[in-house]
Amino acid sequence: MRVLIDYRPALRNRTGVGEYTHQLVKALLGSHPPSSADGVELTAFSSSWKDRLDTREIRAAQTIDRRVPVSVLNFAWHRLEWPPIEMMTGRDYDVTHSLHPLLLPSRCAAQVVTIHDLHFLAHPERTRAEIRRDYPALVREHAHRAARIVVPSRFTAGEVERQLGVPAERIAVCPPGAPAWTPRAIPPPDGYILFFSTIEPRKNVGGLLDAYERLIASGRQAPELVLAGRASDEAGPWLERLTHPPLAGRVRHIGYVDPSNRLELYSGARLLVMPSFDEGFGIPVLEAMTLGVPVVASNRGALPEVLGDAGPLVDPDEPAEMAGAIARLLEDNSYASACAAKGVLRAQQFNWTRTARLVHDAYRQAIDDRRDAGSRTR
What we know:
six-stranded parallel β-sheet; Rossmann fold; seven-stranded parallel β-sheet
């Protein structure tokens, strides 16, 4: 099975989509080596004017790296559906896999897309660049043309079925896997409250800051709040709040954290707060649970599906409720320990080998459907 994956989301500053892309490629290479009977001959495709593809962790894959700006290629692919990937690479494929909702142009391959969430449909004002320009206008048509749609959660599967009208049998739920981390023995007594995600409107950073201010106002000894993640263009007002009382000296933004440093980041946390208005999965919740870090998450999107009963779920529009959940995990050691233990067990249900198997099955089904469709038209 000759598969080409668009590796561009993992080129630099890997956030959720980039991490999913990178780990999926590694898992596919590990679970279906090219020598196996139904193996994947995997090509990782990249194109950028500045950033070059790093092959150190994906040496078993064939790689193609073109010096074409991302924005130029996206416009050509999204709006002109040209050039086909066969023209850009000089090779043919059985499957092309785009890790975002829009198809990768191909002459003959079965086309698979991943839809991580549909937040851009409900709130296009919270997006920018090609996502705002192209995704809302094109996603429905592309979803109906795709041979298979991969999603990270049952929640996102339901949204794709409901909002885009795609039949459930063409949607494959392929959750990400947990990192290979050993749960920590004990939490650090002087650890911080951690937020780990891009600083953008969907992540509800303002609501978290409101909740933290309530903790301070209540007289509790609240640990430092650490905001880890790249600041978006809209992050200015929240970062400005950090320079004024009561947050000055209590909240710290440390910016993007490289994957090699993420274990250390989680290890120093008393708890993680994921207050998002919407999530297609929520990888930081899974990463925190893997290590035994208690989690407070919002009750929106796929977060209840990921966290389960391993921690409190709160209304992201209610800072008082969020502050109360944080305070309980900080002050009730038995409760925090129970949440951490449940989280470790829950995280064990997610592994990248299973993800690779599910994605491989989706590829095979996409190829079979395309072959059957071709037979009917002859």
